[in-house]
Amino acid sequence: MRKATSGRRAGTPYQATYLVLAVALTAYSLLQSLVAPVLPMLQASLHTDQNTVTWMLTAYLLSAAVATPILGRVGDMVGKKKVLAAVLLVACLGSIVGALAHSIGVMLVARAVQGVAGGVIPLAFGIVRDEFPREKVAGAVGVVSALIGVGGGLGLVLGGPIVDALGLSWLFWIPAIAMGVAAVGTVFVVPESPVRTPGRVSWLAAVLLSGWLVALLVAVSEGPRWGWTSGAVLGLLALAVVLAAAWAMVERRDTSPLIDMEMMRIPAVWTTNLAGLLIGVGMYSVFAFVPAFLQTDPSAGYGFGSSIVESGLIVLPLSLTFLVAGIWSGRLSHRFGAKAVLVTGAATAGAAFLVLVFAQSTVWGVVIAMVLMGTGFGLAFSSMSNIIVQAVPPRQTGAASGTNANIRTIGGALGSALMASVVTGHVQPSGVPAGSGYTAGFTVMAVAVLLGALAALLIPPRRAVDEVLGGAAPVAVSAAA
Questions:
Q1: CA atoms within 13 A on the CB side of 51
Q2: Longest Cα pair distance anywhere in the chain, in angstroms?
């Protein structure tokens, strides 16, 4: 049975704890995208092709998707502070290996180890829930969600200047230092919560989750090269379906599931998670492919020949508008409802991809797309947290919010693999991806995100949510903690 807690204990400065969590979350989100603007350079340095080097993003997201529910469960069992410190140290080690890697194989291993940092998300949500004053919890959850997206956008901007000033290896040394600092801060600043949830880790569920994700992502990424109707691709897709069904069955029957299927059946939860999955497909594909598109020499028939720094500056409006929209999302949700904000955000982000489809020939067209994209994703990410907090009892806030973030990560891994598959499926005789590949890829992403907006329309109104909760009054996410 879960021990009750009354929130922050006397003498514990929750602001200092929040600062440490902010550093950890920012470092995690930077790891998602810091390498994205320099993928072409890493491709040449590691002597590989575009499809393979894109796995530097996919491997990270895949590892994070599996690690997130496992480490959240372990933190509930043995203590969130201990597990958070361990996660940060492991991610630091992965960053060090990445800084020293000279082959794509070692680099992919390093990225998979870095992905363990995904455990920071549920642990941070749990620490906020256990240690913060009750009136600050919902707002902190919203800001945590915004940090994840904003940090990812900043990685696109910072990658170029870091490489120009310090070299490729510092894309890994800097996160290693940040993770190390956050680990030390966790040990000395973050209090150990007395809250424990007895249980065990379902390793069978973890293996099945890993299995169906790997099978699906390999099939999607290798489809153009192997052939979509080839036995290998069809076999992997069939295996993914079988393993996913087995995973869902195991989770439903387990008394300590990694992902609570009963909670997932709440109408407001599963519809929000479906929207999050589809929105994640589009969000993370931007990290890998917009910088590569901008850096392509115009002789290929598209692109602007931008430097790494220039491509980062062109993408910068995405991060800025993401932050502003995330801050305003709480106020807009309070006035118009979180569902309306989520639908609007997803529709705006979908429209941004359509701008990339039809106005990709000018820098200003791309800048306008980035403004729309940051606004849309900023509104969507923060409003999803609001809906989740409203849809579950207070004791499930951390688990439900962490699950939503994890599902977005799964969507991101799928989106990166899908975009790579589409782009590399259209190659010019020179070996450079054709412009039609990017156009098709952006179109697919637009469809995915707009489907996310349609999924958000299925979210039941707030009144229906209150009835499910038995008339409880869940708190709303504000713009700041």
A1: 21
A2: 68
